[in-house]
Design goal:
The chain is built from two helices and 31 strands. It is mainly beta and 379 residues long. The chain has a domain at 1-38.
Length: 379
C-alpha cells in the first residue's frame, strides 16, 4: 500500500521485457495486484465557498456523510467511495472564503461510514469491506485492518483517551482495536440481543460505560468493558440513531423513526424524556451536545429527511427549540453528520446536496420558534 513501493517497482518494470503471451499475462496480474492495494490518488480541488444566509456552503461533489475535525478549518468526511477533507484557505469572516478539498478513493462498494480524529490519525470504518482504516494526516499514508468476524459491516466509531477504538458492528458484536498492537478484541452480544443485531452509533463515556444504539431493536446498549457485561435499555421510540453524552453522564439519542430526541433518565418513572423535533417526519440522525461559554447546554440535530438542522437550548426550567433550513428545497437535502470544531464553528454534512455547511456564532435562528416546558430542571 505504500506509494514508494509502487514507484520503486515501476522503475524496474520499465526495463522488464515480457517474453511471449504468458509473460505478458503475468505482468498484467502484477499490475492489477499493485493497484488494488494502493488507494486512489487524492483528487484536489480549489474553490470559493458560497455565502448563504445561515453560514457557508462548501461543495464536496461526493455525498459526505459523517464528519470529524482535525483542527479549525480542516474537516474530514466519509463519502460514498472514499475519505476527503475540506480545508479553508482564508478566514471564514471574509467576504470570499477560498478552500480546497482532497479526496482519497477507497474503491467501489467500500462504503466508508464513520470516522474520528486522534493524535495525527483519522480512523474510519469501511462498512462494505469489513475493515477499519487509518490515514496519517501528515504523510497521507493509508492502511486498513480486517475485522475478525464475517458480516461485521462496521458503522460507528469512537476513541477513548488511551487511543483505543470502539467499533459498532452489524453482526451482533462490538470490537475494540488497540493501535499499539494493531489487534482487535471482539465482544459478542448476549443471546437476548442478537435477534436484531445491527448497531449504528457509539459514544465512549468511560471504560464502564460505552454506549451503542441499536436502531432495528429500538434499544440502546451499555457495555461495561471491565466486567464485560451488556445492559440493554428499550427506548420506546423507533430507530435510535445518533448518541451523545451530556455533562451529567446521561446519554441523548435521536429517534430516527419517531422524529424525536430523548434523554435517558433511569431515576424517573418513564426512564426516557422525549421531545418532538420542530418538523414532523424529520428523521433526526446526527447529534451534537456541548455547553457554550455561558454554560448553556446546546443540543443540535440533523433532520435528514428535510435537509435541515434543529437546536435545543436547555436553560434551567424551559426549553427553546429552533430549526434552520439549510439551502433550498430543490435539490432536496439530506443532512446527517454534525460536529463542533475546536474554534466553536458548527459543521454539517449534507449527502443530498453534496455540501458541507459551516455555521459561526452568532447562530441565526428565525424559523419555527417554539417554547415548551423542560421537566429536566437545571442542566
Amino acid at each position: 500500500m505504500r506509494l514508494f513501493r509502487w514507484l520503486h517497482l515501476s522503475r524496474n518494470l520499465r526495463t522488464f521485457r515480457p517474453r511471449g503471451v504468458f509473460a505478458a499475462l503475468a505482468l498484467c496480474v502484477i499490475l492489477v495486484s499493485i493497484f488494488s492495494s494502493i488507494p486512489a490518488a487524492a483528487k484536489s480541488n480549489e474553490a470559493t465557498a458560497v455565502n448563504a444566509t445561515f453560514g457557508l456552503e462548501y461543495d464536496t461533489a461526493n455525498a459526505p456523510r459523517n464528519l470529524t475535525a482535525e483542527g479549525p478549518g480542516r474537516i474530514w468526511y466519509t463519502a460514498t467511495d472514499g475519505i476527503g477533507f475540506v480545508e479553508t484557505l482564508s478566514d471564514s469572516t471574509q467576504p470570499d472564503v477560498r478552500y480546497h478539498t482532497d479526496f482519497y478513493g477507497t474503491g467501489k462498494d467500500s462504503q466508508p461510514y464513520d470516522l474520528v480524529y486522534d493524535k495525527g490519525v483519522v480512523w474510519f470504518t469501511l462498512r462494505g469491506l469489513r475493515r477499519l482504516g487509518r490515514i496519517d494526516v501528515a504523510t497521507r499514508q493509508i492502511k486498513t485492518y480486517l475485522l475478525l468476524s464475517a458480516g461485521a459491516a462496521p458503522t460507528g466509531i469512537a476513541v477513548e483517551p488511551s487511543g483505543k477504538l470502539w467499533i459498532a458492528q452489524s453482526n451482533g458484536r462490538i470490537s475494540r482495536f488497540d493501535p499499539a498492537t494493531e489487534r482487535f478484541v471482539e465482544f459478542p452480544l448476549p443471546n437476548n440481543l442478537v435477534g436484531q443485531p445491527r448497531m449504528e452509533d457509539v459514544a465512549f463515556q468511560d471504560e464502564r460505560a460505552i454506549w451503542f444504539t441499536m436502531p432495528d431493536a429500538n434499544k440502546v446498549v451499555l457495555f461495561n468493558s471491565v466486567q464485560q457485561t451488556f445492559f440493554a435499555v428499550a427506548t420506546g421510540e423507533l430507530g435510535p440513531m445518533g448518541i451523545a453524552i451530556d455533562s451529567t453522564g446521561a446519554p441523548w439519542v435521536t429517534a430516527y423513526g419517531s422524529g424525536k430526541v430523548g434523554r435517558y433518565t433511569p431515576t424517573t418513572v418513564s426512564v426516557w424524556i422525549w421531545y418532538d423535533t420542530p418538523s414532523p417526519n424529520s428523521r433526526p440522525a446526527g447529534i451534537l451536545l456541548y455547553k457554550d461559554q455561558l454554560g448553556v447546554s446546546q443540543l443540535w440535530l440533523t433532520e435528514s429527511n428535510i435537509g435541515s438542522i434543529a437546536r435545543l437550548q436547555l436553560i434551567k426550567t424551559f426549553q427553546v427549540t429552533n430549526e434552520e433550513k439549510l439551502g433550498p428545497n430543490s435539490p432536496p437535502g439530506s443532512t446527517w453528520g454534525i460536529i463542533r470544531a475546536p474554534d466553536g464553528h458548527i459543521w454539517v454534512a449534507d449527502t443530498g446536496r453534496n455540501l458541507l455547511y459551516e455555521l459561526t456564532e452568532p447562530f441565526v435562528h428565525r424559523l419555527y420558534f417554539t417554547s415548551i416546558q423542560n421537566t429536566l430542571g437545571q442542566n
